Amino acid sequence: MYLSRIFNSLNVSMQEQYMTELLELNEKTKEYGLVLSLKDVQLMMAARSQALYSYGRVELSIEVTKELIEVFSTSSFIQQENYVDTLNELHEIFYYLKNETEDRINDIKLLHRMKEVFEDDCEGSLDLLKSRLEEYAEEFRRQLLKKESLLEGEDEYWDLKI
Question: Structural domain tally of the chain?
Fold first, then answer.
């Protein structure tokens, strides 16, 4: 009975800490004309939670969100008017890709790959980004399967030699 109250209060306290950390990033992003309000952060946290829930994921920190903001705030394709919506969509794409690549790509590497494709191939189009990254995930899985089947073959070869 009291345990649930304790966990709830810890959760509220962590959420407040996360929001504070995200608002502090405004110091870095304002040089690009991008600033999040408290309401923006609350909306983004809700969208992040929904994305995590819909992909069956659990995240115990806010580091991915912080890195996402830092990496994408330098984009010339993101303006203040679409900043929060873009961040929300990028969260969705990121967690989709984490699932599609079976968590085998480092978070930071994946975020930088997303930014590279967003800037170069997609010129700021989120729909095109999702499409291109779906292709990337398919190719990644194909290569992974190929590698695993080669390794399985090696195991069989070594099993026969012993």
Answer: 1
